[in-house]
Write a structure and sequence with these properties.
The complex is a heterodimer of chains A (113) and B (114). Chain A has strands spanning 3-7, 10-14, 19-26, 30-38, 43-49, 56-58, 61-66, 71-76, 85-93, 101-103, 107-112. With 113 residues, chain A is mainly beta. Classes of the chains: A mainly beta (113), B mainly beta (114).
Chain lengths: 113, 114
């Protein structure tokens, strides 16, 4: 059965710390991997990774995919309280043409002042 | 609108009643998805629409669940004879090209079954 596993499930840090969130997957027909940030309501899109070893960066956030290790990491540097959220990792299932997402459980990040 | 719009934002109903949830995707997006987020569980896929093609209903948990998409735009998810285990947040997402582009989510409908 296809699955996506995130670690840690929860994390508490202080402002200014750097965090690394992990995502590993076992998906038979991998197409791409996405990261989302979910605060109160809608998950908001962060990154879409298709190729291994190419880092994507947006401000203090960056992410990279390792297809050999079937994993991805999301880095957040100089964390701020506004980074507190649930970070979701999802893999696009390529077994059909639907592009449906298989989600991990999420990592809950709390950044303390 | 600029984003995916869902209504209602909250719905409380009694067990056994039918409910209808609505999703208005981003203009121009041909692919539309419904997911369910239950307490303590990740998001799970329910159903997928792409243009005029037959929908992929493989994620619907029971025959009490159905969905339609009229005119290639607005979609409604209907749950008949609701049960307490249907309580969850129902999220809708759309994308411009199916697998090649990221899905963008609405705020969801929080459904509570009493």
């Amino acid at each position: 059965e296809d699955k996506v596993v995130q670690s840690p499930l929860s994390l508490v840090v202080h402002e200014g710390d750097t965090v690394t969130l992990n995502c590993s997957y076992e998906v038979t027909n991998f197409r791409s991997l996405l990261w989302y940030k979910q605060e109160k309501k809608a998950p908001t899109f962060l990154f879409m990774l298709t190729s291994s070893g190419i880092e994507k960066k947006s401000g203090r956030l960056s992410s990279i995919l390792d297809k050999k290790e079937l994993s991805s990491i999301l880095n957040i540097t100089a964390t701020q309280t506004g980074d507190s959220a649930i970070y979701l990792c999802a893999v696009v299932d390529g077994s059909s043409n639907t592009g449906k997402l298989i989600f991990g459980q999420g990592t809950t990040l709390q950044v303390k002042p | 609108g600029a984003g995916v719009s869902q209504s209602p934002s909250n719905k409380v109903t009694e067990k056994g009643k039918d409910v209808e949830l609505r999703c208005d995707p981003i203009s121009g997006h041909t692919a539309l998805y419904w997911y369910r987020q239950s307490l303590g569980q990740g998001l799970e896929f329910l159903i997928y629409f792409q243009g005029n093609s037959a929908p992929d209903k493989s994620g619907l948990p029971s025959d009490r669940f159905s969905a339609e998409r009229t005119g290639g735009s607005v979609s409604t998810l209907t749950i008949q004879r609701t049960q307490q285990e249907d309580s969850a947040v129902y999220l809708c997402a759309s994308s411009s090209q199916g697998t090649a582009q990221p899905q963008h989510f609405g705020d969801g409908t929080r459904l509570s079954i009493l």
